[in-house]
């Protein structure tokens, strides 16, 4: 177990880096920051020269791989780090100098237990991308197919485990300070971050996620997932079909190739809604570097290390919340927050509905080009503190992805209105999933499942309370307290007296037996 002094040393070292980028200024000025944290921040920045504008992304980039991943995670938490910090963290690029190919080849051979030449006829030693956890090389398989090979950086697992241990230690101590720190649940934030990171460190799970997403999106035209080469995939190496296309961020190249940008933007939004609302399993790392447009206009997604999952009940709540905000039914949106227990029951539904109206109505009066999902989410976060809403971890990735998708869609078509695109899809989904027919079908299914469980329930009851046997029932026996179970000093004293007599008797008997004592 790591000693506390080691955690403190790491935190101070990282704090120095944050201070040089001006990233501690907000922590010190925030009235909700515990005094102990402010003192630690002052010590960390002592003697440093801070820039006028904080650069959170640059600080995390300098600290290292775990900090880069943590920064991307914190970009989903405007309630925790503030809107300005989130805007800066969204520019964080997971891009590091590549590992030498000789080390990569050695790691691949060790993971497969055989030479790389047995699997690949050719591998480009210059990576097409190098991130904090892995890097990607273009290759040709021994059967002549072009593929992309993703390989974990050697030693990255150990380094991430070390840093995350310090994050957990710091979060536990921060939450123990109580107040606002407890409400924001930093330990849960780090726990989710750890789970996401561990998932990224097992490339078999990433391959399985890609396969599952491809299966759920099979019926949607114009959106594809590269196929997995399972024979060339293990925990440290993942091989997928090579994607030829234009990065979705390269607007000029897309126009030159003749693609319909507004149509691409709308299709991307609908693809996300289908994943999140219909399937409950979505690509949660939809930044511009992970999306390509093929020559036929198909949007191809890559990098499935971070995936989001939402259960059916939460998806129903989410759909109703989105639809209620688009139609101005703030009372229903407020009721859903109480039904989902996002807001404690001691608050007023009517007061919460009024607060939601303060967020929604200013947006409803703006022109189409100025409506923003990001603005809506920021507004919702602004009222969470007043109504003691705790962080909902299962919605963090969804919020982050919604903002990412809106940003990409807006870059393709500045006039797009996310509400106009989303509303028909959400309305149809609500009708199909929450309408009278769906409600009746769901009730019949639920009641039938309950009936089918009754025989098992009866058997378990009989096992717990078996029938009486043939022997007559025995009379109740009196409850006789045992002397060593009696409470109070009297019982203890009697035990001490008896023990003394016993020891004395044994001593006398021994003395007589040895002749030491004569009667």
Describe the structure.
The protein is globular. The protein contains 22 helices and 11 strands. The protein has helices at 4-20, 25-29, 35-45, 56-63, 65-74, 78-81, 83-89, 101-112, 156-176, 180-183, 186-200, 203-216, 251-256, 261-279, 312-327, 330-339, 349-364, 373-384, 393-412, 418-434, 436-464, 489-514, and strands spanning 120-123, 129-130, 134-141, 146-152, 223-224, 237-241, 246-247, 281-283, 291-293, 299-301, 307-309. The strands form 3 sheets. Strands 1, 2, 3, 4 and 6 form a 5-stranded antiparallel β-sheet that branches. The chain is an alpha+beta fold. 32% of the residues are buried. The chain starts with a helix and ends in a 5-residue tail after the last helix.
